[in-house]
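To the wet lab folks,

You asked to see what we're planning to order before we commit. Fair enough. Below is the target structure as tokens, and below that is the sequence we designed to fit it. If anything looks off to you, flag it before the synthesis order goes out.
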């Protein structure tokens, strides 16, 4: 905790709290984007298996007599059609792993939700895909949204089950716009999301709605 005059700055995990004379005046949440452990895992898996497929297919073309992955014998594989298919699938897998790694580096979707209680506004920032400038150079592109508390209708916790489950906290504005406050691909514990949604609703002094879709 850092104290500066009558202000206090507290950091816990991915949250920041600013107090003034003992009263909370701002609360911030830091959201992780594509730079997550599971994305590193899938990038490594795709690159490893893709490299194996590619080298095996290439070996069949060059007539290299060797084994790949030790437990599988690929010495009898013909370049047409098995070898060329292995080269194709291996190339696709390697390219996909590089794409995931690039997305990890960009950390898309990461950002901060700041609830400024003193000014009664909520500020939302998100990292977006880079854009090309007039000089054909990539430039970072971020999303900045600012909404006063007076425009907020309610907080909604949407739970979607099935093959593509989703757990998202939405900021519902009075014009019926729905602004996601959490990432749709981040499946946090339900109890944690409920507590988080209740806390945000209390800060904004609005109602909380639970929306369950099976």
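Sequence we intend to order:
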């Amino acid at each position: 905790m850092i104290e500066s005059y009558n202000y206090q700055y507290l950091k816990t995990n991915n949250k920041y709290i600013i107090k003034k004379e003992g009263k909370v005046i701002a609360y911030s949440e830091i959201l992780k984007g594509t730079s997550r452990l599971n994305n590193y895992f899938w990038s490594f898996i795709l690159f490893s298996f893709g490299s194996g497929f590619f080298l095996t297919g290439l070996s069949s073309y060059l007539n290299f007599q060797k084994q790949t992955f030790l437990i599988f014998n690929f010495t009898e594989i013909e370049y047409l059609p098995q070898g060329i298919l292995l080269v194709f699938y291996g190339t696709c897998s390697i390219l996909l792993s590089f794409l995931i790694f690039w997305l990890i580096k960009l950390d898309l979707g990461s950002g901060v939700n700041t609830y400024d209680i003193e000014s009664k506004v909520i500020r939302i920032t998100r990292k977006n895909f880079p854009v090309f400038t007039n000089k054909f150079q990539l430039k970072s592109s971020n999303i900045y949204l600012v909404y006063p508390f007076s425009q907020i209708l309610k907080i909604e916790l949407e739970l979607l089950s099935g093959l593509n489950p989703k757990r998202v906290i939405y900021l519902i504005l009075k014009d019926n716009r729905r602004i996601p406050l959490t990432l749709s691909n981040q499946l946090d514990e339900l109890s944690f999301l409920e507590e988080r949604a209740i806390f945000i609703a209390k800060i904004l002094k609005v109602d909380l709605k639970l929306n369950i879709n099976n």
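Structural context that might help your review: The chain has three helices and eleven strands. Residues 79-106 form the longest helix (28 residues).

Thanks,
Computational group
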